[in-house]
UniProtKB/TrEMBL annotation:
SUPFAM superfamilies, alphabetized: Carbamate kinase-like
Subcellular localization, as worded in the UniProt entry: Cytoplasm
Family to which the UniProt record says this protein belongs: Belongs to the UMP kinase family.
Name used for this protein in its record: Uridylate kinase
Catalytic activities: UMP + ATP = UDP + ADP
Name of the gene this protein is made from: pyrH
EC number, as in UniProt: 2.7.4.22
UniProt note on regulation of activity: Inhibited by UTP.
Matching InterPro entries: AceGlu_kinase-like_sf, Asp/Glu/Uridylate_kinase, Uridylate_kinase, Uridylate_kinase_bac
Species lineage: Bacteria, Bacillati, Actinomycetota, Actinomycetes, Bifidobacteriales
Length: 239
């Protein structure tokens, strides 16, 4: 029997910086709260896939500054994202929310490999899927991977959770009190004005495939649930 409306399926991007609460490593209070808020939305029928960054451990570009080969540093960065995924999985499971981690780098004792059709099946069964290790390739970012995964598993939107800001502004609101938040912004404007949404490769992939991106503030309690359930918070980047 054909269903009336297909369920909402979205991809949530969480930066590693948020997971660390501004420090190296994991802030359990932050990760637990995010997990609680995700679990509420899933109980309300939203299908949630998540890409987690790794900036709270390592960034390849920074390791390069410290004298480490860029690609090797990038792999270190990718491995950091997997630790964040496992922490998020643990807190989600503590909420009673079944969760699978799929890594782009094989580590089959701790995660499944990235298998897109299986990821879709997990979502249909009400499980959260967390994607780790980025694209498994140096010189990529977890922002770019968020767009790619969202496209491949047919998510309607990418929801970018930010720390310290609640949307995209005309200038840095922490430095300029005249800065205004956009409620809507075109891909081209974000690219041309180099507004701090995500990196240019990620933005251009979203533009080429007209995938909407919503940038919102992670810190306000309840925001993660709200945005997952479709509230129009923050800034929508679209055509
Ligand atoms: N990374 C990579 N390829 C990918 C994804 C990530 O090489 O596909 C590396 C890169 O070094 C990056 C680090 O992993 O700096 C952590 O990811 P990211 O900086 O995107 O995390 P976030 O800023 O969201 O915390």
């Amino acid at each position: 029997t054909p269903s009336h409306t297909s369920p909402r399926r979205v991809l949530l991007k969480l930066s590693g910086e948020a997971f660390g609460g501004g420090h190296i490593g994991i802030d359990p209070n932050v990760v637990r709260r995010i997990a609680e808020e995700v679990a509420v939305a899933v109980r309300h029928g939203v299908q949630v896939a998540i890409v987690v960054g790794g900036g709270n451990f390592f960034r390849g570009a920074e390791l390069q500054q410290a004298g480490i080969d860029r690609s090797r540093g990038d792999y270190m960065g990718m491995l950091g994202t997997v630790m964040n995924c496992l922490a998020l999985q643990d807190f989600l499971e503590q909420e009673g929310q079944a969760t699978r981690v799929q890594s782009a780098i094989q580590m089959t004792q701790v995660t499944e490999p990235y298998i897109p059709l299986k990821a879709i099946r997990h979502l249909e069964k009400g499980r959260v899927v967390v994607f780790g290790a980025g694209a498994g390739m140096p010189y990529f970012s977890t922002d770019t991977v968020s767009i790619q995964r969202a496209l491949e598993i047919h998510c309607s939107e990418v929801l970018m959770g930010k720390n310290g800001v609640d949307g995209v502004y005309t200038a840095d609101p922490r430095k300029d009190d005249q800065a205004k938040m956009f409620t809507q912004l075109s891909y081209n404007r974000a690219l041309v004005d180099n507004l701090a949404v995500m990196d240019a490769s990620a933005l251009s992939m979203a533009r080429d495939n007209t995938l909407p991106i919503r940038v919102f503030g992670l810190e306000t309690p309840g925001n993660v649930t709200r945005v997952l359930e479709g509230e129009t918070l923050g800034t929508l980047v679209s055509a």
